[in-house]
Amino acid sequence: EAGVVQSPRYKIIEKKQPVAFWCNPISGHNTLYWYRQNLGQGPELLIRYENEEAVDDSQLPKDRFSAERLKGVDSTLKIQPAELGDSAVYLCASSPRSDTQYFGPGTRLTVL
Amino acid sequence: GENVEQHPSTLSVQEGDSAVIKCTYSDSASNYFPWYKQELGKRPQLIIDIRSNVGEKKDQRIAVTLNKTAKHFSLHITETQPEDSAVYFCAASKTGKLIFGQGTTLQVKP
After folding, report:
1. What is the DSSP secondary-structure string of A55-87?
2. Is A95 near chain B, with CB under 8 Å?
């Protein structure tokens, strides 16, 4: 069984530029999560989807971050414009139900 | 809001010794407690989890205990091996939203 797939694995951009991350969850997993992990810290939830519906986006900085999960499968997380403080690893996870979560390899974002 | 405290932040043991990592949570409604292992530059990998209706769970060299009254849970690794070296994260959840601890860097010295 394939795991959670994310791309790109690494991204370097200048501040104020836009950036997008893509996630393909494990087949059959209805719940999808986006996390941000700063260096030396645990992941922090940004948004959670149940199928195509965002059921928890309370931690998503909505002035610059947006996400979508069209058709309830793949998801895209976007930042526009990026700031220096957005440098982090962005992790996607999926779950067959709302507890056991499996993580993707993450996208390491560096904002210069 | 929900908070998870994890201790110690670093732990160094000799190969073959046991390692214990402890976490406390603030929300008494939390009912799911997973542990993840993360090697440098890799994804967090689920190694064991426990639900609130169970007090202890074991999987080979790894065990987790849960004390709901005290709101704390612990990870126990016996007969540690160098490949156990990694960062370990605990987490607590009640509605699918995982709140993670700050992580413990475990070093197993051969």
Report:
1. EE-TTS-TTTEEEE-GGGS-EEEEESS--GGG-
2. yes
- Dihedral sign for Cα B26, B67, A37, B20, please: positive
Please choose, from the candidates A22, A21, A46, A24, the residue with its C-alpha nearest in 3D space to the C-alpha of residue A33: A46
Q: For residue B67, give Cα distances in angstroms to A66, A111, B30.
A: 39, 42, 12
| Cα of B108 to nearest chain A Cα, Å | 19
- Residue B48, pLDDT above cutoff 80: yes
How large is the average pLDDT for residues A56-70? 92
- Looking at the complex, report in whole angstroms how far the Cα of residue A87 sits from the nearest Cα belonging to chain B: 15
Give mean pLDDT, residues B18-46.
95
Instruction: Label residue B107 exposed, middle or buried (CB < 10 Å: 0-12, 13-18, 19+).
Output: middle
Q: Tell me which residue in A31, A99, A105 faces B43 most closely, judged by beta carbons.
A: A105
Cβ A112 vs Cβ A17: under 8 Å: no
Shortest CA distance from A92: residue in chain B: B43
CA distances from A16 to A19, A61, A64, A75, B2 (A): 10, 15, 10, 23, 33
Predicted confidence at residue A14, as pLDDT, reads 97
Q: Is the dihedral of CA B7, B8, B10, B13 positive or negative?
A: negative
